[in-house]
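Dear colleague,

Thank you for sharing your sequence with our group. We've completed the structure prediction you requested, and as agreed, I am returning the results in plain text so they can be pasted directly into your records. Please verify that the sequence below matches your submission; if there's any discrepancy, let me know and we will rerun it promptly.
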Amino acid sequence: MDVDQKYFSNITTRERAIFEGAISMGALFHQFVGTPVNKHTKESLERAMEESLNLQPAIENVEVTIRFDKLEESMTEFDYTSLTGDMLDVKIHTKVENVKATIRIEFIEELNYPLMYVEDIED
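Please find the predicted structure tokens below.
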């Protein structure tokens, strides 16, 4: 079966590159927010997020950083906290045919919100 023809012929290659990154970003956010984390597990959690998303179609690269400053602010007396959206700085790089897209989430101080957006498109 030609999956591209059957399910994606109604959108452009550019739209598909954005779609692939956006659904992966949503999956990352809703799968990992709430995960217990501390300064000792931060790096392994970052790598786990990267490695799991890199398995998905059209994903070229994933860069995950858990902001240490936001992690430290949220620490409890039990030496851990739960991952929140404001701790995430993530870039998902996709490629569909000749189109590359970078989808990002980062905490925007002025908005007081972890914003997901299309950071870049290369045709």
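Summary note from our side: The chain has a mean pLDDT of 96.

Kind regards,
the structure core
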